[in-house]
Amino acid sequence: MTRLSSSGRIEVICGCMYSGKTEELIRRIRQVQIARQPFRIFTPKLDTRYGRNQVASHAGTWLEAQPISSINEILPQVDDAQVVAIDELHFLEDSPETILAGCQQLADYGLRVLVSGLDQNYRAEPFMALALVSAVAEQVDKLYAICVRCGAYGTRSQRLIDNKPAPADAPTIVVGGLELYEARCRACYEPAR
Ligand code: ADP
Ligand code: ZN
Fold first, then answer.
1. Is the CB–ligand 1 distance for residue 154 below 6 Å?
2. Domains of the chain: total
3. Is residue 176 situated within a structural domain?
4. Separation of 146 CA from ligand 2 center, angstroms?
5. SS3 for 188?
6. For residue 185, how many other CB atoms are within 10 A of its CB?
7. Under 8 Å CB-to-CB from 112, ≥6 apart: which residues?
8. Distance 155 CA to ligand 2 centre (A)
9. Cα–ligand 1 centroid distance for 17 (angstroms)
10. How confident is the model at residue 6 (pLDDT cuts 50, 70, 90)?
11. What pLDDT score does 160 carry?
């Protein structure tokens, strides 16, 4: 654990569902490939929507990834990598503080750390892991989707059950796609009750 170099940095890609976070993560990794820099991609084990060993965007692009439960599984597997990417950071099973410390440790080690994740849960509350890591990151890009109701910029993930807002006491993490979540703007978002 001594590889300190000036290239260590954290880049956060955040936003609501369908805002293009995974597409942007894949775009940055493609550039890393073009630069011929060794990299590793990790994905939380919880996110099994598209099969386990890949990060996949809603637009259909994908890259192979290593499933992990904890941020602390990354450092022992880094080998010669210069870049590590973690998709859907909010799905890791660690506490937000552990995720913050883990990202800091990887960047302090000299790695370029690319992370993507939801900035807010379905109740439109902050996902603390993303909030904490964004505070210390060198670069934060917040993306927006398109509100399916009105066509404005969508910034919130609406969870629906039988076309009604999911109740406020439902679990925070429920993995799903278009059948369960819609992108909505602030005005069209219906609060969970
Ligand atoms: P995220 O990782 O933020 O959930 P993805 O990168 O997986 O987003 O997918 C982004 C893609 O989702 C867009 O390029 C578009 O093809 C598709 N998409 C589906 N619904 C929407 C929407 N409401 N607004 C914007 N893009 C959408
Ligand atoms: Zn709207």
1. yes
2. 1
3. no
4. 8
5. coil
6. 20
7. 7, 8, 9, 11, 82, 83, 84
8. 9
9. 7
10. confident
11. 95
Mean pLDDT of the chain: 94
Does residue 145 line the site of ligand 1, with CB under 6 A? Answer: yes
The tokens for 48 are 């099994």
Whether residue 170 is contained in a domain is answered as no
- Give a yes or no: residue 14 inside a domain: yes
The ligand placed nearest to the CA atom of residue 13 is 1
List, for residues 51-63, the tens digit of each pLDDT value.
Answer: 569 999 988 899 9
Q: Count of residues for the chain?
A: 193
Q: Which of 41, 54, 57, 158 to mutate to test the pocket of ligand 1 (most atoms within 8 A of CB)?
A: 57
Rounded-to-integer distance, Cα 25 and Cα 143, Å: 12
Q: Which domain holds residue 111?
A: 9-144
* 164 is a domain residue: no
CATH of the domain at 55: 3.40.50.300
Q: Taking the model in full, what pTM does it have?
A: 0.95
Which ligand lies nearest to the CA atom of residue 190 in the structure? 2
pLDDT digits (tens, 9 = 90+) for 10-42: 999 999 999 999 999 999 999 999 999 999 999
Name the band, by pLDDT with cuts 50, 70 and 90, for residue 50. low
Contact in structure between 85 and 42 (CB atoms under 8 Å): yes
The residues that are catalytic are 88
